[in-house]
Amino acid sequence: MFENLSLLELQQYWWIIISILASLLVFLMFVQGGQSLIFQIAKNENEKLLLVNALGRKWELTFTTLVTFGGAFFASFPLFYSVSFGGSYWLWIIILLGFIVQAISYEYRKKSNNILGSHIFELFLTFNGISATFFLGIIVSTMFTGSAFTLDKFNLSTWQSASNGLEAFKNIQNIILGLSLFFLTRTLGAMFFLKYIDNVEILARAGKNVLFNGITFTILFVIFLVFILTKNGYTFNPETNLVYFEKYKYFNNFIEMPIILVLFLLGVITTLFGIYTGSVKHYQNSFFISGIGVILVIFSLFINLGFNNTSFYPSASNLQSSLTIINSSSSKYTLAIMSYVTLLIPFVAGYIIYVWKVLSKNKINKQELENTGHVY
């Protein structure tokens, strides 16, 4: 079946898979957003216990999706993996360090003989909540702004900056998307608390955080959209693979791919509607409303990045070193064989939905935690 597809069709198929995983990852990072709110929403130890345990029942889904996303990118577009992870070293290492201390924190926060105390592990969770979202947003933004690398004829990359990725902070657009993702995940995290925690005081504070973080996210995201839709983008000639600038490239991509534009606009409207219902009406299902919107928005942005002859990882040092889905993918044989694994996605998705429902059958409150056999 898959072996009958052309190489380009397989490359496009795998970019769609990458886009789906990226959108799910951003949605599931409500866990990180919730962790960054622990000290703001919880005012005593009992309230912190409720917040941490609500998030603790979901954190592995985010971690697993991150690993799957990275593995899929490595298998389908290995050149991006080697260039980005090799060059943007400090950005990625801080993100990965945050996820390491997150796993340790959930495991040992309530262990007996914990010499560090719960507070230290709560600080680790906060660090993960801030660093993972902010730095991931910066990395994604460099897929629009470009990074300082060059490739030789053997596809070996050389980074032109000694700061190993930290030069991304010099571009205000990168910082804006980093902050935008940070406030988006905090908004989703607050909505998650509205949905799954049974505590009047926490719900009142969570509603206020949906309002503040939702408005801040909206402003920052609009600014980011103005940046990318009005700037020159990186396009290439599919016959010669020559990369060059195109005025309003990302705006043109939406116009030339109307289905993606519709999905994007639908996602934006749905996300904003969820923020409204969560902040004003404290509507519990605002979490899933905005979650669906976020998935549509991120999916559309990634399709915009990779399709329509666009360089999804441009080089700011040498245009012709820019990466596209054509020049950075695995071989046709590898893509075709790996594609059969994706047939298992519906079964995995079904399992995740089942586990989610089982673990979220009842809202979390003090009595429910006392009756459970495991507390984070």
Helix content: 55-70%
Question: Which structural class should the secondary elements be placed in?
Answer: mainly alpha
Order of helix and strand elements from N to C terminus? HHHHHHHHEEHHEEHHHHHH
Strand order of the largest sheet: 1-2
Descriptive labels:
globular, 4 strands, 16 helices, two-stranded antiparallel ribbon, 376 residues, mainly alpha, 68% helix
How would you explain this protein's 3D organization?
This protein has one domain. Helix content is 68%, strand content 4%. The protein has 16 helices and four strands. It has helices at residues 7-28, 30-35, 38-41, 45-56, 59-76, 78-87, 89-108, 118-145, 172-196, 200-230, 249-256, 258-280, 286-306, 332-339, 345-359, 366-371; strands at residues 149-151, 157-159, 233-236, 243-246. The strands form two sheets. Strands 1-2 form a two-stranded antiparallel ribbon. A hairpin with a 6-residue loop joins strand 3 and strand 4 (243-246). The longest helix has 31 residues, at 200-230.
